Amino acid sequence: MFQLGGLVVTLVNALLGLIVWRRLRAAFPRHGALINGLCAAGLLLLTHPAVLMAVASWSGLRALQRHLPEPVSLIALGAQVALLLYGLLLGIAAIVRVAFGALRRGRPAPSARAVTVAEADANARSGAGAQAGSAAQPASAPEDVKTEPETIDEPRRRLLVGATWALPAAAIAVSMGGVLASRQRPVVVRVALPVRRELTSLHGVTLAQLSDVHVGSFMDAERLDELRDAMNALRADIHVITGDLLDHHVSQLELSARLLRGLRPARGQLFFCMGNHEYIAARSASIPTIVKGLEEAGAQVLVDEAREVRLGGDRLWMSAIDYPSRARPGEPARRPTADGLARALGQMRDDGAPRVLLSHHPGTFRAARELPFDLMLSGHTHGGQISLGRIGDYALTPMLPAGLYHNGLYEHRGRRLHVNAGAGGWLPVRINCPPEITLVELVSA
What is the rounded CA–CA span in Å between residue 362 and residue 421? Predict the structure, then answer.
């Protein structure tokens, strides 16, 4: 699948590179050889991630991360996003041109102006006089019409050439800004969870959520220390991590455990649910190895189960389900999502205490939103990493297929879902979608 994706992106890159080359040749006709070399070198150097994926699938992209200096990888992936954004802008511009052309062709032709009786009489008299004059004088031979060469408006030409490069310049600026934004300190998104008034020991209790760190994918020890300090600065009572702490290999367990040991929840409890990348990392070892390493670092790994959390004289329920996917060869079979939900929620008593459900994949909310819980915390989507906003429940992002539950807070008949935009990512570009830590506060209903 990744190899096919790399091949498709490579073909798109070639098409967009051809468009850029033609525009350069048209704008600077005297420098053809230089332009040819620059375009070929630029495509090879700046879009090699897609070429590597086309040749060597996912392992090609991993080799890029392992062997190239990080600044070079960041620039290359930022340039790749810039090229795809340029293609997107070209597509939008083409659609707009076609739409305006269709509107202009669909307009009715201007109607002829009504001619009054007086104007008709005057036209008749002038026509008769013209015929008499033409009878008295012989018709003159038609003269050759001479057209003067059209002059080139140089200021207008320069303006058009500049406008031609406005789109690629904007794409490059936005993408490289997105590379810098992906390295910034995570923002804190606050979510309120109403609880019953009589549960006074729970009022003001906070949960800090971290998701999709992807240790090893542009996430080194220095950045992990920044995440640790940002989480601890919130002084939250409970910490939760909703999957994809590791990225793809068991060797990343050491740095992941280092992060977990550095977290300091005020009430001392750290809960963890499995993401798809924990299972990817387990292919280089085993699932028990991954789970054991996380638990030895202080995390309570919940797999289709629930735990009671006592807070003063009251309690809340913390539960989590497994990542909803079929087991691969060598992995133990996983429960279907519906069975996992039934098992986890069945372990929580219906005693009025708030019930929090961790699920790495937010799509679980479709199956769970009619079930008895108060808040689901998810991740997985990275918020799309490139966000164009949201209309109702529909997030607008070119990085994800159309659908629900990509980023932010959703509600369905009193059941709430918050999708964390993630702190890391396999793509080091974030546009209008900064790294995030979610802070949930329990408030009196």
Answer: 11
Give the CA dihedral 298, 302, 306, 310, nearest 10 degrees: 10
Amino acid identity of residue 241, one-letter, is I
Reduced to 3 states, what is the DSSP secondary structure of residue 290? Answer: helix
**Whole-Å CA distances, 288 to 207, 296, 301, 313, 324:** 27, 12, 11, 35, 18
User: Do residues 248 and 275 lie in contact, with contact meaning Cβ atoms separated by under 8 Å?
Assistant: no
Nearest-CA neighbor of 86 among 114, 47, 31? 47
CB-based contacts of 418, cutoff 8 Å, min separation 6 = 189, 191, 209, 375, 376, 377, 378, 408, 409, 410, 438, 440
Beta bridge partners of 272: 241, 301
Cα dihedral 66, 70, 74, 80 sign: negative
> Kind of pairing, strands 206-210 and 187-195?
unpaired
Determine the Cα–Cα distance for residues 442 and 202; give it in Å rounded to an integer.
6
Cβ 35 vs Cβ 28: under 8 Å: yes
| Angle between helix 48-67 and 70-106 (nearest 10) | 160
Tokens of residue 347, six digits = 């372990």
Which one, of 425, 354, 366, lies nearest residue 393 by Cα? Answer: 366
Q: How far apart are CA 241 and CA 370, in angstroms?
A: 24
Tens digit of pLDDT per residue, the chain (445 long)? Answer: 667 777 787 788 788 888 878 877 777 777 777 777 777 777 776 676 777 777 766 666 666 666 677 787 788 888 888 888 888 888 888 888 888 888 888 776 555 454 444 455 555 555 545 444 444 454 454 555 555 555 656 676 666 666 667 777 888 888 889 988 998 999 999 999 999 999 999 999 999 999 999 998 888 899 999 999 999 999 999 999 999 999 989 999 999 999 999 999 999 999 999 999 999 999 889 999 999 999 999 999 999 999 999 998 899 999 999 998 766 666 667 888 899 999 999 999 888 999 999 999 999 999 999 999 999 999 999 999 988 888 888 888 887 776 679 999 999 998 999 999 999 987 889 999 999 999 999 999 8
The helix/strand/coil state of 317 is: strand
The angle at the Cα of 67, spanning 64 to 71, to the nearest 5 degrees, equals 75
User: Are 386 and 399 within 8 A, CB to CB?
Assistant: yes
Compute the distance between CA of residue 193 and CA of residue 172 in angstroms, rounded to an integer. Answer: 41
**Cα 132 from chain centroid (whole Å):** 79
| Residues pairing with 438 in the sheet | 189, 209
The structure tokens 């062997």 sit at 67
